[in-house]
């Protein structure tokens, strides 16, 4: 399973809105489109860190708004470890 699919599955587990795989777009906002609240967003970040064995910097988190941004960020971190 690739990075995008793993993150997709983690987002679905934390999201208040249950979306079909074909419905989630890179441009979807993590909070407004995917229904992640502040607590579920923190839980998602922790799950991603555990799943990919990476550390996500708090300053970087503040710059990640869209699903595609999150996928790109994690992909870069995974490729550079």
From TrEMBL:
<dbReference type="GO" id="GO:0000035">
    <property type="term" value="F:acyl binding"/>
</dbReference>
<keyword id="KW-0444">Lipid biosynthesis</keyword>
<dbReference type="GO" id="GO:0016020">
    <property type="term" value="C:membrane"/>
</dbReference>
<dbReference type="InterPro" id="IPR036736">
    <property type="entry name" value="ACP-like_sf"/>
</dbReference>
<keyword id="KW-0597">Phosphoprotein</keyword>
<keyword id="KW-0596">Phosphopantetheine</keyword>
<dbReference type="GO" id="GO:0000036">
    <property type="term" value="F:acyl carrier activity"/>
</dbReference>
<dbReference type="Pfam" id="PF00550">
    <property type="entry name" value="PP-binding"/>
</dbReference>
<keyword id="KW-0276">Fatty acid metabolism</keyword>
<protein>
    <submittedName>
        <fullName>Acyl carrier protein</fullName>
    </submittedName>
</protein>
<dbReference type="InterPro" id="IPR009081">
    <property type="entry name" value="PP-bd_ACP"/>
</dbReference>
<dbReference type="InterPro" id="IPR003231">
    <property type="entry name" value="ACP"/>
</dbReference>
<keyword id="KW-0275">Fatty acid biosynthesis</keyword>
<dbReference type="GO" id="GO:0009245">
    <property type="term" value="P:lipid A biosynthetic process"/>
</dbReference>
<keyword id="KW-0443">Lipid metabolism</keyword>
<feature type="domain" description="Carrier">
    <location>
        <begin position="1"/>
        <end position="78"/>
    </location>
</feature>
<dbReference type="GO" id="GO:0005829">
    <property type="term" value="C:cytosol"/>
</dbReference>
